[in-house]
Design goal:
Shape: globular
Strand content: 15-25%
Mean pLDDT: 96
Number of strands: 14
Helix content: 25-40%
Radius of gyration: 20 Å
Number of helices: 9
Low-confidence stretches: none
Length: 313
């Protein structure tokens, strides 16, 4: 199997981190939730991935808003005000004396159940809120070499089955796609929508550059990505024509550049898609690395993260 942009090795600094479990700070080895928890039994919950940059979290308001919007969509009360949740987040970060190079997973499940059953009415506790901050940065080798993508048979479903805009704990379709891509020797799965158009990747958002234009999917079959949205906004500010639209694998295979985005890694260039090198169709040159549009957007995004990192809403 191919490696991913996440490093599977535990950073020694993370062995002694404190994890927030319902507001209580506990050592990593002792952090646990009930086997009757809704998230463990059913994947019933919502979550956010955040980055710590110079002591603050870029796009903090957007992340917290998406978390509460997801909770509202599944009729789940988080039990804390947004400001109180942010305070708990930074209490955990500060207790670990963290400043930079940290990835945070903020998870909220419906809580503990009286019995293993899907009906939310058998929940007998307040929501479970877990905050895990870890020293973690993207695999630099993958960033330099570029990713390999493989289109999988697992599609992003229609919203009347499970709305793909919901950042829920239920990620089995993405996990299945990830496994298929890994077994094909790829880093990430490229997933199509129900009509066969390109939707997104299993854990990142997907962009292509065609003849100076930046294309990404319509957004109807992926979570409302915060990094994705920032890339679109930055492209407009830089004068790069950008389109959210339906497009097929034919358009992908003929692209000049391709990259994926996400909170964890920012922008990562793509080198190969379904065995085809990412380059202009008339080119015979080896992949030169991130293209000019990718480089401009990556630099602009890093500057924006530094500018927007904050500690309050």
């Amino acid at each position: 199997m191919a490696e991913n942009i996440h490093d599977v090795k535990i950073d020694p600094r993370n062995l002694d981190i404190l994890i927030s479990v319902n507001g209580r700070l506990v050592p990593r080895a002792e952090a646990m939730v009930s086997v009757f928890d809704s998230g463990f039994i059913l994947g019933d919950g919502v979550w956010e991935g955040l980055r710590l940059v110079k002591g603050g979290v870029p796009f903090l308001r957007e992340h917290i808003e998406r978390l509460y919007e997801g909770a509202k969509a599944i009729f789940m009360e988080i039990g804390l005000s947004p400001d109180d949740l942010v305070k708990r987040l930074f209490d955990c970060i500060d207790a670990n004396k963290m400043e930079d190079g940290v990835h945070i997973r903020l998870m909220v499940t419906r809580g503990v159940k009286a019995t293993p059953y899907q009906d939310p009415r058998v929940t007998i506790s307040a929501p479970t809120i877990v905050i895990i901050p870890e020293y973690k940065t993207p695999n630099p080798e993958k960033t330099a070499k570029g990713l390999v993508l493989h289109t999988v048979h697992v599609h992003r479903g229609a919203p009347d089955v499970q709305d793909q805009k919901l950042n829920s704990h239920s990620k089995l379709n993405c996990i299945t796609a990830c496994i298929q891509a890994a077994n094909a020797g790829a880093d990430e799965a490229l997933m199509l929508d129900p009509l066969g158009f390109v939707a997104t990747c299993n854990s990142t958002h997907f962009f292509i550059v065609r003849r100076g234009e930046l294309w990404t999917s319509s957004g109807q079959y992926c979570i409302p990505g915060i990094t994705r949205g920032n890339m679109i906004r930055l492209a407009k500010e830089l004068g790069i024509p950008v389109f959210e639209k339906q497009f097929s694998l034919y358009d992908v295979y003929g692209a000049d550049e391709a990259f994926v985005t996400g909170t964890f890694a920012g922008l990562i260039p793509v080198r190969v898609i379904d065995g085809r090198p990412v380059r202009h169709p008339m080119s015979v040159e080896e992949w030169p690395g991130a293209g000019p549009v990718s480089q401009r957007l990556s630099a602009a995004y890093k500057a924006l993260c530094l500018k927007d990192a904050r500690r309050s809403l």
